[in-house]
Specification:
The complex is a heterodimer. By secondary structure, chain A is of the alpha/beta class. Chain A has 5 helices and 8 strands. Chain A has a 3-stranded mixed sheet with strand order 1-2-5, with no helix packed on it. In chain A, helix 5 links the parallel strand 7 and strand 8. In chain A, helix 4 runs antiparallel to helix 5. The longest helix of chain A is centred in the first third of the chain and has 21 residues. Chain A is globular, with a radius of gyration of 22 Å. Chain B is an all-alpha fold. In chain B, helix 1 runs antiparallel to helix 7, helix 2 packs across helix 6 and helix 6 runs antiparallel to helix 7. Chain B is globular and about 55 Å long. The termini of chain B are far apart. The relative contact order of chain B is 0.18. The chains are: A alpha/beta, B mainly alpha. Chains A and B meet through helix 5 and strand 8 of A and helix 4, helix 6 and helix 7 of B.
Chain lengths: ~190, ~170
Amino acid sequence: MRFSAICSLAPSAGECIDLRQAVTRPLKDWPHGLRSNSGSATKFASICRASSLVSSLAAERRPRTTKDSGVLVERPRRRESLALTHPIVYTYTDSDIRTAGRTMETIEKERIEDIAKRVATANLGVTGISSAISSPTIDSTGRAALEITIVLTPGSSAAITGRTAANTVLALNQALQEAGEERFPIVRWVAK
Amino acid sequence: VAIVNPDHLFEQAERLIAPATEPEARQTDLRRAVSAAYYGVFHFTLTAATDMFIGTESRDSEQYMATYRSVKHEWLRDLCDHLRGLLKPRSPPHAPGAGFFGPLINFATSVATLQEKRHLADYDPSFTITLDEARILIAMGREAIKLFQDASEKQRVAFLTLLLFNLRK
């Protein structure tokens, strides 16, 4: 099961989100399709119920204070619910993805990999690059991103300097943006 | 006050990936190396920004410390993403284009990459990395500092000002 963060863009169909994230993510940051698509209304309602449950449980975990004779006194916390120790899973469907109201432009996997291989070869030399593989991911800020693995031929990684690596990542950024791909490419370097 | 020396962080990272007695480098060491490489660039940038606004002669002052500590990783990332966005074929006409920031566009792209890797290395239990990749990332960190230094004073002042005063979204 692949979990994704709740973010402004829905990840791929079949990926899951753990609704406990709703405790820290405001509703406005949820995938658009899950709150605006009437076809997903039933699912969305169940998510809301689950998230409000989670939120109320989380609220009980926070220290509470009451003003008593001008003095702030911490009220005893209620026993934590076991619900918070288990993921509350929602799996994205094709329908969610189609109606997710994407604002970020993307292009197909084959084209991304073709661009990545071409850019890497241009910057690192034709003998060093075996292939390029891309897959969707979520970056540390919760936004849709791309993981691009540059597969190097054995022994060729030693020739990659900081300058060539930086230039390759920059050129890849630029080439993808020019092709209409706005997700941030997080480059991995693997020798096989 | 002893300001964090970025070179020491890069050297620490290189020591962590140096050949050891184990047949394979430990993931713990490789993760720490990636983290140190990012922090090398992060502290370099913060020092440059605070030196510019508060002054190197005031490094012992409370104002220096407060300014240094005020910058969040998110601010640096937002700014780097903003600069990377200037690579788009259609940038907002009122914003300085990629040409204005010159080598800082490359710097910003490297910083964003290193920050992502640092996040994975520090927090993602499933993250694994090879020795080769760790070495490349450390080299990228060192290169990022050179790229920053290659920028003109006007470019650096613009970047550091936007960093300290938090880019408005």
